[in-house]
Amino acid sequence: MPMLQTVELYSWPNLTKIIELKQLIHLTSLAIGDCPNMESFPDHELPNLTSLTHLIIYNCPSTDASFPRGFWPPKLHTLFIGGLKKPILEWRPQNFPATLVDLGLYCSQSEEDDVSRCSQLSHLLPSSLTTLRIDRFKKLKSVSVGVQHLTSLQHLFLGGCPKMKHLPDILLPSLLSLNIFNCPKLKGRCSRRGSYWSRISHIPRIKINEE
Q: In sequence order, what DSSP letters do the residues of 88-131 get, joined into one string?
């Protein structure tokens, strides 16, 4: 077990707790998703996972309400997180390591979603990010405010945000890819005849899907 490098736990309804992680010193990737009854996760041991670069934990709505508390692996590169017991609006600044460049924030259907502006999430967005994913925030209308400090951002993914209308103008010139999925109010604006086209047409990779 200590030699494990990858662990994936998806759709385990009988999983109620993860007791220990600290012995998995060679672990590079940990993914936990759709585990509705997982109540306990030893996040205080994450700093001991010095090889861990990829962490996914989402749609685990029973997870201890104290998580996340700001404990992270020192070499964390990619994090996708959300849909936990504690609503994202209640998360404190997380003291992410400087190595974190790829962050995804997820809002599950069961989570109370009162995030309407990206400025409400800005304290969770470190300036080191080159990739940002915003997924399933039903009330989010804009990412034009609260992201100005993301001067290294190159890749932006927006998915499942039906009220989203505004992109971050200040960051568009530096983007290398823009992915928009199931954001109907943005679809027209980002089409070749839309109001945003002149500001995004330089982006090498643009992908816009409705469903």
A: GGGPPP----TT--EEEEE--TTS-----BGGGTGGG--TT-SE
